[in-house]
């Protein structure tokens, strides 16, 4: 009896081991819950869709892909734990994450030390890929985004005096504010007021009252969507009716839910617009809705999550292997890969240069304004 | 000058909310001599009750808003009394430290139960009261700010009346002064303590609704920061002292707002807390508190 149960146990272990070898494990860490849940949910849905499509088409190297997802709850510190678990316990061959730069920066050194390639779908702070040669991204970086918005403020908004309101405890916000200021002042603009807040703050009336007194023509808010929406509301309450504009951190359905009418006449830059009439984009929107429901609209992060999976699989195919160093070299050699967010070329800094889309908010709706090429 | 007045108004409306939460901390401390760390989470539950009730009444009406506000206050009063009955009462005769640690446990329990029940993603709080903006000279006053300050003042006056003019208030003060002696003269301590928790929790609920009206994005961890600030405000004013809590809240809100609007906005919380340390160095019992040596 004892022998029989032991044999059975051995068989089960063997079966599990065989099963484990059958798949290529891809680790994902994302903010599925918490303050920036929209970022994680969107990128997760895009990524899952891509993995399912790839598996339906037969997988890669004769194996199916297996996506292992960890939620970091939007909390500082959790991404590091999640990524350590994915690497040491789940033995993933590559990591995909995160949308937020701050949380990507937490995970990047761990991926680098373990020599597991990491692809950040939408972390735009330049420091992310500077962590090391195993860290990649499939989106543009903030020096470009800052330049786009500085030029937009000067030529389209005709703003001469701009105030900047950024979050000091958010790497993305600090970086984007800096790059915006550099271009804006270099082109003759004046920063009349610069105010800061911290992540999780909800009261911005103090800063906004000072901004109003400084007489700004427009206000640049490089923050995430919850703060941006609350800032716009409180600004309108205080009678500050100038345009507000920001970066891809504003992308989320909750932006309009929380901000409402206060956001009319505001603008932001992003990676992708589902309103784009390009057939590739429209096909993606259709597939996304078919998978996740008719009321679900893919945003930039869904599209980037989707592209990140395809870029990874493309590299695995070219490498013919899932070993860290080989996969890294194949990823670094990614050229002219065309996805739903445009063509991805990984440059020497492991960044991708892609066009930015500018979105206008009018009458409570998002309107695609224009695309700015890199 | 108008910027100064505007900031003062901003600061007072923020401080009024801190004051409402601080009152709950201070009342429980006054009666039981322990810090009820779960208070800031009762504040969160208040906002969520408001969120669900707000869906049942038409948006932007006065009666609907008042209904939501009183519903949340009653709901949280019951929750507060329930927590006291189930968790704190069995520990009442144990060391204060045990109760303190238990309070932290209840706080975490509420936060993470909230994440399961309400979900961890932030929700948008409905506009339950009618809103308008008034312009007085160059000042812009939003009806929400007026409402927050108004409700806070009304509730504080009501509280002062309850504590000093009613029988139960007299009993509360008696228990606070000496629980054993109060029992000897026929005060039912359990009823008084239960009532104190109910009252404090109702104020927290009101604070939660007012906070959510001004900052309409609510989540299960929304109580942590305002709770900490209110706790600080209660200490600043002199813990156990009701007017002290109100004063501490208003002071902290105002200081924070003025620093937030200056070029030192980066160091807003650091400076606000540094001021607290300085005040406590010179007045260790808080602004209005009486100094007594106590073992914790």
Mean residue pLDDT of chain B: 88
**Count of all domains of chain A:** 2
Reported by name, the CATH topology of the largest domain in chain A is Rossmann fold
Provide the β-strand percentage band of chain A: 15-25%
Query: Stretches of chain B where pLDDT falls below 50 for ≥5 residues?
Result: none
Corresponding CATH superfamily of the largest domain in chain A: Response regulator
Biggest β-sheet strands, sense, barrel of chain A = 7 strands, mixed
Strand order, main sheet of chain B: write it out.
1-4
SSE string of chain B, helix = H, strand = E?
HHHHEEEHHHHEHHH
User: Number of helix segments of chain B?
Assistant: 11
Largest sheet of chain B: 2 strands, antiparallel
SS content category of chain A:
alpha/beta
CATH class of the largest domain in chain A: Alpha Beta
Structure summary, number of beta strands of chain B: 4
Secondary structural class of chain B: mainly alpha
Question: How do you describe this structure in short?
Answer:
Chain A is α/β, with parallel strands linked by helices. Chain A is 46% helix and 19% strand. Chain A contains 13 helices and 14 strands.
What does this 3D model show about the protein?
Chain A has 374 residues and is an alpha/beta fold. Chain A has helices at 2-21, 37-56, 78-88, 101-114, 127-130, 142-155, 171-186, 205-214, 225-237, 253-259, 279-292, 300-319, 324-332, and strands at 23-30, 64-71, 94-96, 118-120, 135-137, 161-167, 190-197, 218-220, 244-246, 266-270, 337-339, 342-344, 356-362, 365-372. Chain A folds into two domains: 2-140 and 280-354, Rossmann fold, CATH 3.40.50.2300; 143-270, Response regulator (Rossmann fold). In chain A, strand 8, helix 9 and strand 9 (244-246) form a beta-alpha-beta unit. Chain B is mostly helical. Chain B is 71% helix and 4% strand. Chain B has helices spanning 2-32, 39-54, 62-88, 96-117, 143-165, 167-177, 179-184, 189-214, 224-237, 242-260, 268-282, and strands at residues 123-124, 133-136, 139-142, 217-218. In chain B, strands 1-4 form a two-stranded antiparallel ribbon. The chains are: A alpha/beta (374), B mainly alpha (296). The A-B interface holds A 33-35, 37-38, 73, 168, 195-198, 200, 202-207, 209-210, 212-213, 226, 229-230, 233, 237-239, 254, 257-258 and B 2-3, 6-7, 10-11, 13-14, 115, 119-122, 124, 133, 135, 140, 142, 144-145, 211, 214-217, 219, 225, 256-262, 265-266, 268-269.
């Amino acid at each position: 009896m004892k022998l029989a149960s032991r044999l059975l146990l051995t068989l089960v272990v063997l079966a599990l081991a065989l099963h484990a070898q059958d798949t290529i494990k891809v680790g994902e860490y994302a903010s599925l819950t918490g303050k920036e849940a929209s970022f994680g949910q969107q990128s997760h849905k895009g990524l899952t869709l891509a993995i399912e499509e790839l598996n339906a088409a037969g997988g890669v190297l004769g194996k199916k892909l297996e996506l292992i997802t960890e939620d970091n709850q939007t909390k500082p510190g959790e991404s590091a734990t999640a990524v350590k678990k994915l690497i040491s316990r789940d033995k993933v061959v590559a990591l995909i994450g995160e949308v937020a730069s701050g949380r990507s920066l937490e995970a990047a050194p761990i991926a680098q030390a373990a020599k597991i390639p990491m692809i950040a779908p939408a972390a735009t702070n330049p420091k992310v890929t500077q962590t090391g040669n195993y860290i990649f991204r499939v989106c543009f970086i903030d020096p470009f985004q800052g330049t786009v918005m500085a030029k937009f403020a000067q030529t389209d908004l005709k703003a001469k005096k701009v105030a900047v309101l950024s979050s000091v405890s958010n790497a993305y916000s600090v970086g984007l504010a800096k790059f915006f200021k550099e271009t804006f002042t270099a082109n003759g603009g004046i920063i009349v007021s610069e105010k800061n807040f911290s992540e999780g703050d909800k009261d911005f009336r103090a800063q906004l009252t000072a901004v109003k007194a400084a007489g700004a023509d427009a206000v640049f808010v490089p923050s995430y969507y919850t703060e941006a929406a609350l800032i716009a509301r409180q600004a309108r309450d205080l009678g500050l009716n100038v345009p507000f504009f920001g970066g891809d951190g504003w992308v989320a359905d909750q932006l309009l839910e929380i901000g409402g009418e206060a956001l009319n006449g505001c603008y932001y830059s992003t990676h992708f617009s589902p309103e784009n009439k390009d057939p590739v984009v429209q096909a993606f929107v259709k597939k996304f809705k078919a998978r996740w429901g008719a009321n679900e609209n893919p945003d930039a992060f869904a599209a980037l999550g989707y592209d990140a999976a395809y870029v990874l699989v493309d590299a695995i195919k070219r490498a013919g292997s899932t070993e860290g160093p080989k996969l890294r070299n194949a990823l670094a050699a990614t050229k002219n890969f065309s996805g739903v967010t445009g063509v991805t070329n990984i440059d020497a800094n492991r960044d991708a240069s892609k066009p930015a889309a500018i979105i206008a908010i009018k009458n409570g709706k998002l309107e695609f304004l224009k695309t700015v090429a890199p | 000058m108008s910027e100064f007045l505007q900031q003062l108004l901003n600061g007072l409306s923020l401080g009024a909310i801190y004051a409402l939460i601080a009152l709950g901390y201070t009342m429980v401390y006054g009666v039981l001599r322990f810090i009820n760390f779960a208070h800031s989470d009762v504040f969160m539950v208040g906002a969520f009750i408001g969120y669900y009730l707000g869906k049942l009444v038409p948006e932007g009406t006065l009666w609907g808003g008042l209904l939501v506000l009183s519903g949340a206050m009653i709901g949280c009063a019951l929750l507060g009394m329930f927590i006291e009955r189930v968790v704190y009462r069995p520990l009442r005769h144990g060391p204060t430290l045990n109760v303190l640690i238990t309070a932290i446990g209840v706080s975490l329990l509420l936060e993470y139960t909230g994440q399961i029940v309400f979900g961890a993603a932030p929700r948008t709080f409905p506009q339950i009261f009618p809103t308008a903006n008034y312009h007085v000279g160059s000042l812009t006053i939003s009806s929400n700010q007026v409402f927050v300050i108004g409700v806070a003042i009304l509730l504080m006056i009501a509280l002062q009346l309850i504590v000093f003019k009613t029988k139960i208030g007299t009993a509360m003060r008696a228990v606070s002064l000496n629980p054993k002696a109060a029992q000897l003269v026929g005060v039912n301590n359990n009823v008084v303590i239960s009532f104190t928790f109910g009252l404090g929790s109702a104020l927290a609920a009101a604070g939660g609704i007012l906070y959510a009206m001004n900052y309409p994005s609510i989540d299960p961890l929304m109580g942590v920061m305002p709770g900490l600030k209110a706790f600080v405000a209660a200490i600043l004013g002199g813990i156990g002292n009701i007017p002290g809590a109100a004063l501490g809240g208003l002071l902290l809100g105002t200081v924070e707002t003025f620093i937030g609007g200056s070029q030192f906005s980066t160091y807003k919380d650091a400076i606000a807390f540094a001021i607290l340390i300085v005040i406590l160095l010179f007045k260790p019992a808080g602004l209005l508190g009486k100094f007594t040596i106590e073992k914790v």
